[in-house]
Write a structure and sequence with these properties.
It contains 3 helices and 6 strands. By secondary structure, the protein is α+β, with helices and mostly antiparallel strands. It has a 4-stranded antiparallel β-sheet with strand order 4-5-3-6. Strands 1-2 form a two-stranded antiparallel ribbon.
């Protein structure tokens, strides 16, 4: 798998987004609402991973942001006040940052521990 992808002599505008979308004012338990949001993200077909506090989505900037909007609207269209917390890493020319960042970090840990890779 290539870490760098060039498209028609232009670098791709790849983005790795960490997003948390949650309802406000719906009580203490939010898992059913968050589940609806995560389903929209997973159904998008873009690479994604869900953790306890954020879901990461990777792809072209416009595609990722369209998914974030669609996921947020799941709650907002029901009249629910919706909070969106978003962190973005935009790295032109790079793909598979979701896995590549972790791989490079693990390699550095192994290197510092004197382990052979």
């Amino acid at each position: 798998m290539s870490w760098i992808q060039v498209k028609h002599k232009e670098k791709t505008m790849n983005a790795l987004i960490a997003v948390a979308i949650a309802p406000c004012g719906t009580g203490d338990e939010m898992s059913s609402y968050v589940g609806e949001v995560v389903k929209v993200i997973r159904d998008s077909g873009l690479p994604c991973q869900t953790y306890s506090m954020f879901t990461e989505i990777e792809g072209e900037w416009d595609e990722v942001m369209a998914v974030v909007k669609k996921a947020a609207m799941v709650l907002a269209k029901k009249g629910i006040r919706t909070e969106v917390v978003l962190k973005a890493d935009i790295r032109p020319g790079y793909t598979d940052m979701m896995h590549g960042k972790i791989k490079r970090m693990e390699e550095q840990i192994q290197k510092k521990e004197g382990k052979v890779l």
